[in-house]
Amino acid sequence: MHLNCHCVQEMLNIPDDKEVIALVGNPNVGKSVIFNKLTGRYVEVSNYPGTTVDVNYGFYKDYVIVDTPGVYGISSFNDEEIVTRDIVLSTQKIINVVDSVHLDRDLFLTQQLIDYQKEVIVVLNMVDEVEKNNIKIDIEKLKEILGVEVIATSASKGLGIDKLKEAIDKNLFKKGRITPNLEKILESEGKKFSCETLVEAENVFSSSVSELQEKIYALRRGYVDEIFNKTVKFDTKKLEFKNKLSQVLINPLTGIPILFATLYIMYYFMGVLVAQRLVDFTMNTVMGEYYLGFIKGIVEKFVSNAFLEKIIVGNYGILSMFPIIFLGLLFPLVVAFHLFMSILEDSGYLPRIAALVDRVFNKIGLNGRAIIPIILGFGCVTMATMTTRILGSKRERLITMFLLGLTIPCSAQLGIISGLISRLGFWYLVAYILIIGFIFGLVGRILNKIIKGESTSLFIDLPTLRIPQPSNVLKKTYYKSKGFLVEAFPIFVAATLVLGFLDATNLLHAIENFAQPVVTGFLKLPKQITEVFILSIIRRDYGAAGLVTIPTTKGQMFVALVTTTLFVPCITSFAMMTKENGLKYSVFVWISSAVIAILVGGVLANIML
Amino acid sequence: MTLDMISKDQEVIIKSIKSKTARVYALRFGINEGSKVKCVAKINNGPIILRKNHQEIAIGNGLAKQIEVETKK
Question: Per its UniProt record, what InterPro entries does this chain match (chain B) (predicted)?
Answer without folding.
Answer: Fe-transptr_FeoA-like, FeoA-like, FeoA_core_dom, Transcriptional_repressor_C
